[in-house]
Amino acid sequence: MDQKHATSLTAAGFFVALMLVLAFFSWSVPIFPSIGAMALAFVLPVFAVRYGWQQALAAGVLPVLFLATLFDPYLAVMHWGLAALLGFAVGVGMQRKYDPVYILLAVAGTLIALTVLTCVAAYLFWQINIFTVLQQWFGEIVDMAFASYQQSNPGSVQLMSLHQQMEMLKETVPALIPLEYCLGLVVMVYLSLRVAQYLLTRQGISVRPFMPVRLWEIPRCMVYLYVLALVMKYWGVSRSIDWLSMIAVNVDHFSAFFITLQGVAFILYLLHRRTPLRSATQAMLIVITLVIPIFQMVAFILGLVDMLFNYRKKREAA
């Protein structure tokens, strides 16, 4: 057995052993399944590039099977199966030296399509509406939170107002579940790529980098999609068409997210022309812009301006 093969087996064995420990204590420590999912998404790409896709496949399948056999198949598939598939797909793409943007779009799109097919199959064969189940689950959590607050503050004058706010949450938040899931997958694939690139670069392995954020160009169709969402939202509310309103809310937030990303790229482009920023500073600015509402609005407006008037392209051409 050569040294490289022995090293790969040792690394895979250590990782699988660590995942089995996390799986064994997952019921007593609820955060362990989430830690295991992140480990699968971030480590499997490194395994695929360094040791080959066979080692990455074994390191991903064995923990999922152990968790499914020992505890709950649903927990295994939803927490670790999806993360293992994501990490494995990203790793294979990086091993074959595909463009990172292509990997991001292909992996995220495939996972979203598989999720849609799973939901359709669950409804057709078992009459289970996944969206309704999630809506009921979220409603139960909100009711439990309100009951706990009511018990601890029985004489509070804010109970009526809080109850109304909770009811609004039960109606609006479930409608955003499809959007949050899709965007969450896109962000998770992106983080998996970035973490794997960082770890592999630190180990002296050359990988194809992402294009700098300041050079990102989001297609202008997102503006048209945003306008379409506003029209759909108007028709849905004015005609009391609930399903159209729900689709409009998701499309609205989806297009607004990518327009805001264009604005973030525009801001970083302007800052870079004055003073080049370190990667950590750029990451901090991106997080602040996407989290704080007032900065989100500024980035959204700048994204619209850049998309409609092609400011960066015209500036570079000049």
UniProtKB/TrEMBL annotation:
InterPro entries: DUF2232
Keyword Transmembrane helix annotated: yes
Keywords: Membrane, Transmembrane, Transmembrane helix
A Pfam family assignment: DUF2232
Transmembrane domains' residue ranges: 7-25, 31-49, 56-71, 101-126, 175-200, 221-237, 243-271, 283-305
Keyword Transmembrane part of the UniProt annotation: yes
Protein name as annotated: DUF2232 domain-containing protein
